Amino acid sequence: MLIGMSNQTVNQAVSSGVKASPHRFNRFEIKYLITEQDVPALREQLATRMSTDPLSPPGGYRVESLYFDSADLRCYTEKIEGLKFRRKLRIRTYGDGVLTPESTVSVEIKQRVNKVTQKRRLDLPFIYALALGDSTGAAVGEQVDVEKLLEISPENQHALIHEMASFAKNYRLRPIATTKYHREAFVGADAEESSRVTIDHGVSGRDRDFLLGQDLEDRPTVAQGLAVVEIKCDERVPFWLTDMTAQLEMSVIRMSKYCETIEAFHNRPASAFGAVDPIF
Predict the structure, then answer these.
(1) DSSP SS3 for 203
(2) Which domain holds residue 167?
(3) Which CATH number goes with the domain that contains 200?
(4) pLDDT in tens, 226-242
(5) Are residues 205 and 176 in contact, defined by beta-carbon separation less than 8 angstroms?
């Protein structure tokens, strides 16, 4: 059992964190970089065919992620080299407030297979998610107890837990970098209900101090005055969205917020050197 957590505490943390979002899905994702001055025009266009995500508070919400990689940045390198199959493991949290060990977070494997993005996700207490992704065990003071984690998890999550644990072990993953931004989200309706458009403002990151939810002065990783727009669809991009991007002169870009963070630290993040710092 991980530090200071009873079975009852872990079960409560897991059950309270179940989200309505799918735990496994395939998507096409297209990214654009626009100026903040152009965002109002984009909002106006989106409002004619989409609605604000009903799960989002007014004005959007904070998204913060902690990415795991090897000390030699193998996951980063696979992305830069454009491998047709590549994976990343991350912890993601939504909203404000410093996390506690019991806070529920989403732990995800995000992988790319040719042009399709696949995500597999489960919700865990922060301390378990950290231990699952950190092969060194240093972030929380001990290695993850996979068998104990299986005992308190639904059976349909067991295969994913094993895959995450194996990925962390085989790649020698450790906490490497965070990304943080403020997100506006829009969703489609009826036949286009799987379509989603997000606008991310103030994208930044850091290579240390990995307790999520802190109000720290992270390093900007996308130039100030620019926002990242993502169109996400299960099958195809609706024609009206394609026309909209052309009308607004939006150009497709290839970028990864994680890779932008690594490059902001000149490919030498502090977290890749020496022992992993304890988070609790």
Answers:
(1) strand
(2) 21-268
(3) 3.20.100.30
(4) 999 999 998 788 999 99
(5) no
Question: For residue 141, is it within any domain?
Answer: yes
Domain count, the chain: 1
Beta strand ranges found along the chain (DSSP E): 24-35, 51-52, 61-69, 85-94, 104-113, 116-125, 174-187, 196-206, 219-220, 226-233, 252-253
Q: How far apart are the first and last CA of the chain?
A: 16
| pTM attached to this predicted model | 0.90
Query: Does residue 260 lie in a domain region?
Result: yes
The C-alpha atoms of residue 18 and residue 67 are separated, in whole angstroms, by 21
Query: Taking a C-beta distance cutoff of 8 angstroms, is the pair 271, 177 a contact?
Result: yes
List pLDDT tens digits, range 30-79: 999 999 999 999 999 999 999 999 888 989 999 999 999 999 999 999 99
Asked if residue 13 belongs to a domain, the reply is no
In a domain, 275, yes or no: no
Distance of CA 142 to CAs 4, 132, 139, Å? 12, 10, 8
